[in-house]
Design goal:
about 250 residues, alpha+beta, Beta-Lactamase, Arc Repressor Mutant, subunit A, 11 helices
Length: about 250
């Protein structure tokens, strides 16, 4: 019996095509999911169910990201899904805002791969999501911008200019911008803004500070500017986000 026959017979004998997903249940901090071409969830690891407050997988089947996330975030997930469906190409290490264990917005890294039917057409995707903190020291695009990322995380409350950030990273502005695009799919200034929003969301959820105090403390000139940028990236105003978290 040749090797291809051995492989095909084994795969044909698998009762559940998604049985291999159980491997991800034993990898700490990794969330596994499957969607169809309408971005409806078909399967998800127990870690995702726990994060979304669900008890069993049947509760998530047929749902979409809009039922669990603010519209702006769900829109971003949908755009990435569509790219995979239309191109048939994987989306590797996409930086996204997702819920951490405390249900606060935080940085996560997501990879999505197309799934093909017997006729070769894309019928959905499978993906994994895990915390950015677990990837930031790895080699590759993340390592190349790690100094700049740490500089942003330590100084995001201040005005950060391109030359200042490039100096901290030890490379030219142009080179740094290219590396940020490779690693995160965004320019450095957008990373700065999202870092401010992520930190501000935690302050909204955990502190009793007023919204204007949080806005100023996180690098925004006033509450109006903070509200515009926060809603643009989360789909909610700061006030609505705080109310949703506390409810």
């Amino acid at each position: 019996m040749d090797r291809l026959t051995i492989k095909s017979e084994f795969l044909a004998s698998i009762c559940d095509p998604l049985e291999l997903r159980r491997l991800f249940e034993h990898i700490p901090g990794v969330f596994f999911f499957v969607k169809d071409t309408q971005s409806r969830l078909i399967s998800a690891s127990q870690a995702i169910l726990d994060r979304l407050g669900l008890k069993q997988e049947d509760e998530i089947v047929g749902t979409t990201d809009y039922e669990f996330f603010p519209r702006e975030i769900a829109d971003a997930f949908g755009r990435d899904d569509k790219q995979v469906f239309e191109t048939g190409e994987p989306l590797i290490d996409r930086l996204e805002i997702w819920y951490n264990e405390q249900r606060i917005l935080d940085w996560f890294i997501t990879t999505k791969l197309p799934m093909h039917g017997k006729n070769g057409e894309v019928i959905g995707l499978m993906g994994i999501t895990h915390s950015y903190e677990g990837r930031r020291t790895m080699h590759g695009p993340f390592a190349s911008v790690s100094k700049a990322v740490e500089f942003i995380r330590q100084n995001f409350r201040e005005k950060i200019g391109g030359p200042e950030l490039a100096k901290a990273a030890g490379m030219s502005e142009r080179h740094l911008t290219r590396k940020f695009q490779e690693a995160f799919g965004m320019a450095p200034h957008e990373f700065v803004m999202r870092t401010r929003i992520q930190a501000a969301s935690e302050a909204l959820a955990r502190s009793e500070a007023s919204i204007i105090e949080i806005a100023i403390d996180h690098g925004f000139c006033d509450q109006s500017a903070f509200t515009v940028q926060f809603r643009k990236r989360t789909g909610l105003t700061p006030k609505a986000f705080r109310a949703r978290y506390r409810n």
